[in-house]
Amino acid sequence: MINETAHRKMQRARSELVLDHPFFAHLALRLEMREDPTCRTAWSDGRVLAYNPLYVESLPLGKLKGMQCHEVLHLVCNHHTRRNGRDERLWNMACDYAINPVLLEAGIELPSGYLDNPAHHGLSADAIYAGLLALQEETHGGAEGGARQGEEVASEQGSPGGGAEDGEAGEESDAGETPLPEAGREDAGGNSGAEGESPSEKTTEAEGDPGMSGEVRDSPSQAAGDGGAESLRQEEQSWRAALSEALHKAREFGSLPGSLERLLDGGHQPALDWRELLQRFLYNAARNDFSWARPNRRFLHTGLYLPGLHNEELAQVAVAVDVSGSITPPELERFASELSSVLEEFDAAITVFTCDAAITRREHLSRWDLPLEFTVSGGGGTDFCPPFEHLREEGTSPACLIYFTDMECGHFPEEPEYPVLWVTANGAHTPPPFGDVLLMPPSA
């Protein structure tokens, strides 16, 4: 039987994050919550957020919210896909040292026992891991007994937050926090964890969270080995898209903590390829937002009313294509294919212009007319003004305009009120006077 008290407490913490920390809430809602008495605290692998119900009951609500943020930030940094055979316990320590300062600076309260050491601030999990491993090998002459040695490394590197020796984190209040449960301990219903598990297996799982705030485990796709490579790539791509959307929402609300902004801007955010950047541009133009007027139906059965994702659909998207002759048919085909796949997600009216020095063709399309098809038929000079002028004369203000061109033209119109994205395969172009530029790399 599921522990309803712990489950409701997890749901309440998640719902409060929606208003307190929209960035973390948006990503936490992707995870399936699951009770797991065999772990000591909690864990996530990119798909599941599992928790020991006794651990959840032991935490004040503020620290429970902090645990959920902690797990989400592991996934934002792809810690669940990047271990690559490294020692699991040391990897968890390194990842905790990397993300906990970001959470603390953002004002997020973490469970007692969290790891924090000023010597690691600003370093990546990989760099911290290398340092911890070197210290372990120097101290113990190898990696044997890594679990217990890891605790000694942590002790030498700096006390866990909430410990008596920690001058900063040691001042955290433990009011209302009870001792942590042991993994596999029987709950009120007499359950003692997964059927058939040995005490040694439970002990191993209990040792998996040296930071006492929730561990990160390998993605199921990574655990599948070479056979899961494509699945892992798709999972990482899915998280990148979700991260992009969560960032947009948090910035829109003005609620993205500076420490998190610096983390993502400092190279920890996975690099987005041009397709994902194209998707981000259109999502931003759609102005997605949370709205209490449309409750999230995924959680109504729990009695929990969370704001739904209200999508102010793209009313109109304008697409201009330079067919002056210097763009190759394969480039045009790639652009049409990728733009079509993104536009299929929106119920938008699409106005397509093909032009060189003047508009050569204009079409009004909808999602049902996709995929887009363009033909190189021009050959004259290039003028960027005609599509903008046509929209102005019509009195039309689209949600955005996407212009595919070689950028070999210096004749630009005045900057319009709507956002503009210039997509080009020409890496040596002169920057335009307005809009964003997206470089479409050569096909592999």
Automatic annotation (TrEMBL):
Residues 141-240 are annotated as: Disordered. InterPro entries: Put_metallopeptidase_dom, VWA-like_dom, vWFA_dom_sf. Residues 317-440 form the VWA-like domain. Signal peptide: none annotated. Transmembrane segments: none annotated. Residues 7-309 form the Putative metallopeptidase domain. It holds the Pfam family DUF2201_N. It comes from the Bacteria. Residues 165-175 have a biased composition (Acidic residues). This is Uncharacterized protein. It comes from Desulfovibrio psychrotolerans.
